[in-house]
Design a protein that fits this description.
binds beta-D-glucopyranose, Immunoglobulin-like, 28 strands, Rossmann fold, alpha/beta, 6-stranded mixed sheet
Length: 731
């Protein structure tokens, strides 16, 4: 009897020890590991998981009010202001070995458009219309970040933005929901790879949920007056697409969405994200966004702010320490139920398990030379820079430059600049990694032309003392390349501008150069669309190079010489003047569209360059689009084809943008909506067919103000290159 009971207790102890190991057992299903671990955690441990502190020197000037904290072993996450994997591993070792349960810390950082290999800003990336290339760039950014100790990036930003006064327009993919969705998904795929636990994958974070792009007047951190219709139709679709693509996490926004801030909004955070879309990762607040609920007038104090944010669906408190300070009391007061804490902790642990952090918590340490700027990374940086540049104007074939351009005046504040080409959010970018425009151009033309470089003036201010040197160089030249633009801090966070024109000194400089009578090529590097109403008439050609990252110099030089045929098209409209804002291609129809009624009296109502504008050195002819049928049932599919020919003398790449328009619907629809795009290279004289398979449910339906989808019968148009083809949907 005694023997049996000893045997039984041995078996029990064995079973218990096995059970004790479930969360550490690599082979156990993630959900069982989470359940096991949560059951073993005490309240303090759980609450710590819901907090994110910072580690290292915070170099983000906008991240105000940070208190230096020591790092507790059991902290959920750290914003990791470092690129030193050895230091990261030391912190992680403490968490793994000194905390009671050995829960790894999640190291997050803003890897926005590259880590050390800095790519063009996101707004520019979308002008490439090359999501596959963007995926490759994001995959390399992930690899560089991972080798530096980062597990999680606060990117992509998929906030549709239609007000270029808002500095953060640089960080997203422009004015169109579909474009934001496509490039958001491409970026998520690049970061997360096939599997989050792959050695080179990092977790993505969709931000800023939601409607931050509608910040009133383009002023940052402000109210956004968003109707439910706009929320569903414009701001939510990119998030839905990226959630479907498996984005691990989401960041709640600063803005107040029609009275309920994004960081305390149960409708967006719980009803939509978690219930309808079934997102099972977690939501982190934006920096200080929980404490700011007090400023936004929805919480009386920090405790209430924490309560509101958490109950709305924000699982992790970025830096505010509000969850840490207040949750014990809120739980004791039975305001926050334990089940909600357990759910939040489980969501955070789920991401950690998916990343494989429990099984491989440490960063593999390799030498910096093997970590960054590998030749493949540089090639992608160059390709993406070239594909994202947009030839806006090219009068009398000013470009590409011909052999007669023997003497080139390369002038302007951006000509020899490096740092500003990196753009905002490039913390790990190094000026010395950047090829300046003058370096790229000298390499390209150094043997065939004499290149004189002068700054002429600064980006702003009123010092004209450099004008005369630049003008005398311009007078001697065959062509003037004027490199203007914005400093990198003029866009990004907390970088709103009341006018999107360049400062007066830059405009005046070009007016003076114009007097030389020499051809002017305007090269613009900026983080937002610009007001070019005064500059455009002075220029023979204009190239928008955005903030191209490390490889802008050679990409631009290739376009100037004709080695590269430009193929970028705008992902955002350039208004004629700031006063036209908002102006975007997918507006709704005016009630009086003809006879100039409702137009501005003082200026044209047309923007200078529409979304989709971009020139090439060759010409493309479009045939008449052919529909597979003109009448189909709702459940049928329809295809439309168009033949495109390269009618010029050089190879070129064309992106075909396919739009849909529904002229009569139960709710008014945008005049046209982008539904598909495709990009192909064509040799001179070559023809090819571009095809769009229309799926009525996906491409013709609309969403109402409750997020319900409807597909109506009636007439529709498919629009390609301004040709409208009518077809009918029948019941
Ligand atoms: C920004 C976020 C960023 C966070 C962490 C905030 O100020 O709004 O976009 O991810 O800081 O650096």
């Amino acid at each position: 009897m005694k023997r049996i009971s000893i045997l039984l207790s041995i078996i029990l102890a064995f079973q218990l020890s096995l059970k004790a190991q479930i969360y550490k057992d690599k082979k156990a299903p993630i959900e069982s590991r989470i359940k096991d671990l949560v059951s073993k955690m005490n309240l303090d441990e759980k609450i710590l998981q819901l907090n994110q502190y910072t580690a290292g020197l915070n170099t983000n000037v906008n991240n105000i009010g940070e208190a230096t904290k020591s790092i507790p072993d059991g902290i959920g996450s750290l914003i990791y202001f470092s690129a030193d994997p050895v230091w990261r591993n030391e912190i992680q070792k403490k968490a793994m070995e000194e905390s009671r349960l050995g829960i790894p810390i999640l190291f997050g950082f803003d890897v926005i458009h590259g880590f050390r290999t800095v790519y063009p800003i996101s707004l520019a990336q979308a002008c490439s219309w090359d999501p596959a290339l963007v995926t490759q760039a994001a995959a390399i950014a992930a690899k560089e970040a991972k080798l530096s100790g980062v597990d999680w990036t606060f990117s992509p930003m998929i906030d549709v933005a239609r007000d270029p006064r808002w500095g953060r327009v640089a960080e997203g993919y422009g004015e169109d929901p579909y474009t934001n969705a496509m490039f958001g998904v491409a970026t998520v795929k690049g970061y997360q790879g096939k599997n989050l636990s792959d050695p080179n994958s990092i977790a993505a974070c969709l931000k800023h949920f939601v409607a931050y792009g509608a910040s009133e007047g383009g002023r940052d951190y402000r109210y956004s007056d968003v109707s439910m219709q706009s929320l569903w139709e414009t701001y939510l679709p990119p998030y839905e697409a990226c959630v479907k693509a498996g984005a691990a996490t989401v960041m709640s926004s600063f803005n107040d969405i029609s009275g309920v801030p994004g960081s305390a909004n149960p409708y967006t955070l719980t009803e939509i994200l978690k219930k309808r879309w079934k997102h099972d990762g977690f939501v982190v607040s934006d920096w200080d966004a929980i404490a700011q609920l007090i400023n936004q007038g929805v919480a009386a104090d920090r405790k209430e702010a924490g309560y509101k944010a958490f109950m709305a669906g924000v699982e992790m408190d970025m830096k505010d320490n509000i969850y840490f300070e207040n949750f014990k009391a809120l739980i004791a007061e039975k305001k926050i139920p334990m089940s909600k804490i357990d759910d939040a902790v489980s969501r955070i642990l789920r991401v950690k398990f998916r990343l494989g952090l429990f099984d491989q918590p440490y960063t593999t340490v390799v030498d910096e030379s093997a970590r960054y700027l590998q030749s493949e990374s540089k090639t992608i940086a160059q390709k993406l820079a070239a594909e994202s540049m947009v030839l806006l104007k090219n009068e009398s074939k000013t470009l590409p430059l011909t052999a007669s351009a023997r003497q080139i005046a390369l002038i302007g504040p951006m000509a020899a600049d490096k740092s500003n080409l990196l753009g905002a959010w490039s913390f790990n970018g190094r000026e010395y990694d950047v090829e300046s425009l003058s370096e790229g151009i000298t390499k390209e033309f150094g043997t065939t032309a004499k290149i004189d470089v002068a700054k002429g003036c600064d980006f702003d201010g009123n010092d004209e003392s450099g004008f005369s040197e630049a003008i005398s160089l311009a007078k001697k030249s065959d062509v003037i390349l004027v490199c203007l633009g914005e400093k990198k801090g003029w866009s990004g966070e907390n970088a709103s501008r009341s006018t999107i024109a360049l400062p007066a000194i830059q405009e005046k400089f070009v007016q003076e150069l114009k007097k030389t009578g020499k051809p002017i090529v305007l090269i613009l590097s900026n983080g937002r669309p610009l007001e070019l109403v005064r500059l455009e008439p002075l220029a023979d050609a204009i190239i928008e190079i955005w903030q191209p990252g490390i490889a802008g110099g050679s990409a631009l030089a290739g376009i100037l010489s004709g080695r590269i045929n430009p193929s970028g098209k705008l992902s955002i409209t350039f208004p004629l003047t700031t006063g036209q804002i908002p102006t975007y291609y997918n507006m709704r129809q005016s009630a009086r569209p003809s006879g100039n009624q409702g137009d501005y009296q003082d200026i044209s109502t047309q923007p200078l360059y529409w979304f989709g504008h971009g020139l090439s050195y060759t010409t493309f002819d479009y045939g008449i689009p052919k529909l597979s049928a003109t009448k189909i049932k709702k459940t049928d599919k329809l295809s439309v084809e168009v033949e495109v020919s390269n009618t010029g003398n050089v190879a070129g790449t064309e992106t075909v943008l396919w739009y849909i328009s529904d002229p009569a619907c139960s709710i008014s629809r945008p005049m046209k909506e982008l539904k598909y795009f495709d990009k192909k290279e064509l040799a001179p004289g070559a023809k090819t067919i571009f095809k769009f398979e229309i799926d009525p449910n996906r491409d013709l339906s609309y969403v109402d103000s409750n997020g319900k989808r409807f597909l109506e019968s009636g007439d529709y148009f498919v629009i390609v290159n301004n040709q409208k083809m009518k077809f009918e949907i029948i019941d």
